[in-house]
Amino acid sequence: MTRYKDRSRPIAERAEHLLSLMTIEEKVGQLVQPFGWQTYEHKDGKVTLKESFKQQITEGGIGSLYGVLRADPWTGVTLENGLSAREGAEAVNQIQRYAVEHSRLGIPILIGEECSHGHMAIDGTVYPVPLLLGSTWNVELYRAMCRAVAAETRAQGGTVTYSPVLDVVRDPRWGRTEECFGEDPYLIGEFAAAAVEGLQGEALDDSGSIAATLKHFVGYGSSEGGRNAGPVHMGMRELLEVDLYPFRKAVEAGAQSIMPAYNEIDGIPCTVHTGLLEDVLRREWGFDGMVITDCGAIDMLAGGHDVAEDGLDAAVQALRAGIDMEMSGEMFGKYLQEALLTGKLDMETVNTAVRRVLMLKFRLGLFENPYGDPERAEELIGCEAHTVLARQLAAEGIVLLKNEDGLLPLERQDVGTVAVIGPNAHHAYNQLGDYTSPQSKSRVATVLDGIVGKLDGGTERVLYAPGCRIRGESREGFEHALACAAEADTVVMVMGGSSARDFGEGTIDLKTGASKVSDSAWNDMDCGEGIDRTSLGLSGVQLELIQAVHALGKPIVVVYINGRPVAEPWVDEHVPAILEAWYPGQEGGHAIADVLFGDVNPSGRLTLSLPKSVGQLPVYYNGKRSRGKRYLEEDVKPRYPFGYGLSYTAFSYDMMRLSTESICRGEQMTVSVNVTNTGDRQGQEVVQLYITDAVSTVTRPLVELKGFRKISLQPGETRTVTFTIGDEQLQYIGTDLKPIVEPGWFRIQVGRHVMDTLSADLMVKEEA
């Protein structure tokens, strides 16, 4: 048996042996990742591999394919021409079989897929977007979701995912806010580790595991003006404390792949940032996995960042900086051989990258089994258990922002006739978020569906009118909406935004797949990748519609379905009940109805501070103490603070106590608090731990999240919640850019959200 095919040998030995057998063409081939949906044709129920793909295999091979099963406007894959769960697995197997049987060395292909909130393929379960997942504050439930996503993806032959997204949001005008967990690095770090553990499982070569790719490394959520891929102005201390923190936690959890961000930091594009890719990631953190670019990132070096003379120079710079594979593969495929032959690139640099790619393939067990399982795919993908999980996640992440006079929950018998009004009331794709495959209507429960299902008499007690679109100035739907509201006893208005991509070429970047703002092509999309805004107000005439319905004097509940915060002071001041549902996924309508009618007690808590107006930005809770108290027109406090969320029951906190009032560096102590459900309903509470460093050598945030627990309490039940505090919770990055715990006073705070806590002081001493 050939040594590299002998699974009894160490992976490093197998990779080294295979590398020694490879030609230049085969080595370069391992570093490129063409678009997977372009490798085959699907017609009349039959998949045929394209000759261009076959030629690439025989001339040197392909290291990876991106989005073989991706379905959306960019790929042109629809419900009509796309592959079912079984067909997808069979197509991947056909691709792999050709690669293994028709290449000289039989090297299998990495199949990379998008799985941020479900596998982005036909029939894949669509979970809520990460912004809602973070709002659950339920790490264990999210880990279970990641296991389910990995199982669905691997069943079809997918082996790598380009998730989780670990960007720290600093300006929610940014269109990709929905893809992130929130504004706090500690919380993101907890979800980051859970993502890696869930996606990769106990063994990468398991039939239900895929390799996680951490993105976007790094600072992507802190771009200038909230503009996608804009410059980032941040020092190394802040990078290490905030934006790099979640990545470090994920690397420690065993992440196998990382994707650098499009942006530059202090003048250096992340794609060629050797200080981050080599010094921090590999040397300091010990990362030994693969680094893959974002789509078109190398092109940007020569045409955007302008730090490279041409494509050849860009490709050489990227490989030297630590890039191992190029998504799209165009620049590496076109220039690397020339760079080697002309001496602009040395073979050892190429070998290093190839070695990392091969190591990942061996870890995934692809040389033993590169294939999907069509029968398992058909049985598992979109199964009932995953649907139930999607509904539970959505329900736990919905945040009750306001509930004046206890309008919610609605009583089935007393609610009377309900008018369900708004552009997001019955628009299935608007509640799914970006990076979502096309869905049949039967697979997505809208809010209208959910409410109809809750009431005896169903449609006879529910009136529906969209009223308006997300965007645009048309008020032609107002009359019907107002008529429905006038006839109803209660009005539920489902407003917000849309990340639903359309199929018009005018609004899709055909090179990267990102949406583009266009003056000529119309759609309702006002959020998502490439859709950044100057405002956080409701788009179009939505506010006018709310105001017109409100004037009728009926009880109104506003439900926001959206991918970034809404700042509408009039709604906050005049509407008695407000739910923030973000993009809740395929079961979102059922989950929202569960909350509206009290079958689920809301337990979602904000992971973003919601501003009163866009003029307050940035408004994240953990800013520096020196940032000022107010503007001329307004203070700097958010409308709804970080960690905030209401419940249908009430919780009280008392008897906060420290196990000791002083510790030495290197020691640990505990803080405990009693939490009691003082209401008459079972409920879940998120107990949050915050710490303030009273005096420090360098300026520090006013307060920082350092722990949280989500607990369930019956009426009258009391539970003691305890957190452990030590160096990990007390340290910061010092003047030498190393972690340090400085002696002095620390304020320990525990409570419901960042502005509602009990506190006690802890003295940290240098030595006993």
Automatic annotation (TrEMBL):
The keyword Hydrolase applies. Residues 685-754 form the Fibronectin type III-like domain. Keywords: Hydrolase. GO terms for molecular function: hydrolase activity. It comes from the Bacteria. The keyword Hydrolase applies. Pfam families: Fn3-like, Glyco_hydro_3, Glyco_hydro_3_C. PANTHER family: BETA-XYLOSIDASE, PERIPLASMIC BETA-GLUCOSIDASE-RELATED. This is Glycoside hydrolase family 3 N-terminal domain-containing protein. It comes from Paenibacillus lacisoli.
